[in-house]
Design goal:
By secondary structure, the chain is α+β, with helices and mostly antiparallel strands. Helix content is 55%, strand content 14%.
Length: 486
């Protein structure tokens, strides 16, 4: 059965392994990718980093990103399919994330612009009630081109994990607007029409409590030209279909989102949107890696037999496939919790804190499982897999990047452990999931570890949380119970 599913593409995996309802729109979107999207994506990846045109021929600062002409066609396909407006107008979250799954199966980098646009829209919808609310929301949820795009710009040169220490961008009041000055080092989807940006209001504490969130449009109000400048674009090893760059904010106009003192909560909510999307996307790309391995093994003859006929290959294919099935179930469970709790505001309920824990588990574990699948695919192809002219090396490059997107593995491990311990979530998890048939001693071992200082248990955190993520994924895959319990 798994071989048949791998031969059919991402839609079959969604339907037959995750039990999700498939519409004709999804099948049409997959067909478009097979016929048109993937060749364009491959061209963009091989072309490398896009070019930045900073000035017009008249000397005006325009900071225009130059991609192959077909890039806009590639990008518009997802927006046209409804990856944004299905949520913004119809609240059809599942269809939006399934379109993201298909996108990321072929090109996880392209899923980034959709994701950061989605998370920017969510932050504005939930917390911004200023005079430009409808304008901003409409910009990011257009049904037809030109489509508006969002960005989430938090990280500065010293890193993104410790935002409380590393965000140096300052915001000062200028009446109805704020003026932001600082530098963002990893700005995904640079060139966005609207970006949500982390900054610190003048005089605010030099900690996470001093962070605020702002909306920064591409252009200044009243025809004042570019509102932010692009210093340069990054030449990344993968995810080249999303432009990542360094942004200079120089008295850039910003609009405060929600309450100034609540900024860290808004920032974490934005990141959690992206983490859920990342979890779904990496599973899709991991499934693509297994499909590539299976196709190659059908044609590769080794020691008198096709590779696909050999027991070790089939055993390892099954192992990777089951891991991705469980990872996919965990990712989709986390998406359902997001849909159920996303309108909650701080202070958060136990349900929201459970979602936060699931997000950390899903982000680190799905990325790990998918990258292992891509590395195994490269091994199946052997020397051919290391050549840029064949698919395996790109699959690995893409998943190396997505592995550290929106927080590295160790960050999620420590954050998940902190949530478990600080909010005493273990009894709640035991009520939600009976994992004794899968791992009899896990909850007891976690309870024992939580009773000790973190420093004493540091070597146990990853094995225990990996087992927890896998167990919840296995139960969910078996029962296909994605909905949130009361």
């Amino acid at each position: 059965m798994k071989e048949d599913i791998l031969s059919k593409g991402p839609v079959a995996f969604l339907a037959e392994e995750l039990g999700l309802h498939i519409s004709e729109r999804l099948l049409a979107y997959q067909s478009w990718w097979e016929a048109e999207g993937l060749p364009i994506s491959m061209t963009i990846d091989r072309a490398g980093t896009p070019h930045l045109r900073q000035f017009s021929h008249t000397g005006e600062r325009i900071d225009q990103i130059l991609y192959p002409s077909s890039y806009a066609y590639l990008l518009d396909a997802g927006y046209s399919a409804g990856i944004l407006y299905e949520v913004a107008e119809k609240h059809n979250w599942q269809l939006s994330f399934m379109l993201g799954f298909i996108t990321s199966y072929y090109d996880p980098g392209l899923y980034c612009p959709y994701t950061v646009t989605f998370s920017s829209w969510a932050a504005i919808y939930k917390y911004y009630h200023g005079p430009r609310r409808e304008e901003f929301l409409n910009t990011l949820s257009r049904k037809e081109p030109p489509f508006g795009q969002g960005g989430t710009w938090m990280t500065e040169i010293h890193g993104g994990s410790d935002l409380g220490s590393n965000v140096q961008t300052i915001a000062r009041s200028a009446g109805e607007i704020w003026l932001l000055t600082g530098d963002k080092y990893f700005a995904s989807n640079v060139g966005a029409d609207l970006a949500v940006v982390a900054a610190r209001i003048e005089g605010a504490p030099a900690s996470v409590k001093g962070l605020s969130l702002f909306i920064v449009p591409q252009d200044r109000s009243r025809g004042g030209g570019r509102n932010y400048l692009i210093r340069r674009l990054k030449d990344k090893i993968g995810t080249r279909s999303v432009p990542t760059g360094e942004v200079e904010l120089r008295d850039s106009e910003g609009y405060l989102v929600g309450e100034a003192r609540q900024g860290i909560y808004y920032i974490m909510e934005v990141l959690n949107f992206s983490r859920v999307a990342n979890s779904i996307g990496v599973v899709a790309h991991g499934v693509h890696a297994l499909a590539q391995a299976y196709r190659f093994a059908q044609q590769r003859r080794v020691f008198g037999r096709f590779l696909v006929e050999q027991p070790l290959f089939r055993h390892e294919l099954h192992q990777h496939y089951m891991q991705l099935k469980w990872a996919g179930a965990l990712a989709w469970l986390t998406e359902q919790w997001l849909e159920a709790v996303w309108l909650e505001k701080p202070p958060y309920s136990e349900r929201y804190l459970t979602f936060r824990l699931l997000t950390h588990l899903a982000k680190f574990w799905t990325a790990k499982v998918a990258l292992h699948a891509a590395q195994w695919n490269l091994e199946v192809w052997a020397g051919l897999g290391t050549l840029a002219e064949f698919p395996p090396e790109r699959l690995v490059r893409e998943l190396i990047v997505t592995d550290i997107w929106e927080g590295t593995r160790h960050r999620h491990l420590l954050d998940a452990w902190e949530v478990l311990k600080r909010y005493n979530l273990l009894p709640h998890l035991q009520k939600l999931w009976d994992i004794s048939a899968i791992d009899k001693t896990l909850f007891a071992e976690i309870e024992q570890a939580l009773a000790h200082p973190e420093e004493e248990m540091i070597q146990s955190i990853e094995p225990l949380l990996t087992r927890l993520a896998r167990a919840i994924g296995q139960i969910t895959a078996k029962e296909r119970a994605y909905k949130v319990l009361p």
